[in-house]
Amino acid sequence: MEFKGLLHVHSTYSKDGKYTIQQIKELYKDYDFIAITNHYEHCFEKSDQIHYEINEQNNQLNSIGKKQLIILGFEYQYNCSHILFIGLAETIPVDLEQIKILIRKKNPLVILAHPQMKDFLLLKESLINYVDGIEVYNSLHNDKQYPAFHLFRKLKKLRKKNNTIKAFFGEDFHNGVNSDTAIYVTAEKLEEKDILLALKNGNYYIKNKYFTYYPDGRFEYIGRIFFPYMKSFFVEVLQYLNPKVGKVIYYLPYSSRIKQKLYQFLKLFFGRI
């Protein structure tokens, strides 16, 4: 069965979150599952309380024949890198070696959130064999109409060293809906263990009205895009194609003719990613 879900969501248990878990459930009532990943440093002392609240809400929905699965996790900061631990409700150690032991023991879904260059150094040096994937698209940090192409390029390089690393999406919800993007998972049942197993095995795809992409980084452009800021888009494309060339900034007039040419280019370009 296919289930529609959302990863990387913050509630009021995060200091920068505006919505309660119940309000989030109502806001995303057409989603089958939601992964709540509050900032660990804000809520680790309340993890038992959060876990109890989520279990109570899941049980209440089950009792009336409605099901919307809430999966508990954390967004954990390690040396300025942000790591999502989804399906984990335990204390996370500060020592990297102990973190590796915890991952092996509890087997949560581990995703590098909104990665930057320093985060890839952490991956290469320490966690290349311990993460399930990276957010190649974060709807809070990236453009709403196109993803961060340079992160797809990084993903391809990482997969040469560990081909189990996958492309993920994070809504990074704090103060309201960022996008209409969702992750569609094929799993046997709408149960936490089944959803997490399907995500770990790559049985999913990510889709919004502009594009679709898959765990291995394959990408499909599906919508017509209009860019008010051509410069930002072209820098992203060039970073994907060639990071050195990506430093060059292209200034283009915003005209209907340019838009048409760009649209034709996009169809060709995305078909080859």
How would you characterize the overall build of this protein?
- This protein has 273 residues and is of the alpha/beta class.
- The chain folds into two domains: 2-221, TIM Barrel (Alpha-Beta Barrel); 230-270, no CATH class.
- The chain is built from nine helices and eleven strands.
- The chain has an eleven-stranded mixed β-sheet.
- β1 (2-9), α1 and β2 form a beta-alpha-beta unit.
- α6 (149-161) runs parallel beside α8 (230-241).
- Mean pLDDT is 78; it is low at 225-231 and 243-256.
Brief sketch in words of this structure:
The chain is of the alpha/beta class. It contains nine helices and eleven strands.
Major sheet: arrangement of strands: 7-6-5-4-3-2-1-8-9-10-11
Overall average pLDDT: 78
Low-confidence segments, given as residue ranges, are 225-231, 243-256
The radius of gyration is 19 Å
CATH domain class name of the largest domain: Alpha Beta
CATH architectural label of the largest domain = Alpha-Beta Barrel
Task: Provide the structure class.
Answer: alpha/beta
First-to-last CA distance: 28 Å
Global morphology: globular
Number of helices: 9
> Which H/E pattern describes the elements?
EHEHHEEHEHEHEEHEEEHH
Largest sheet: 11 strands, mixed
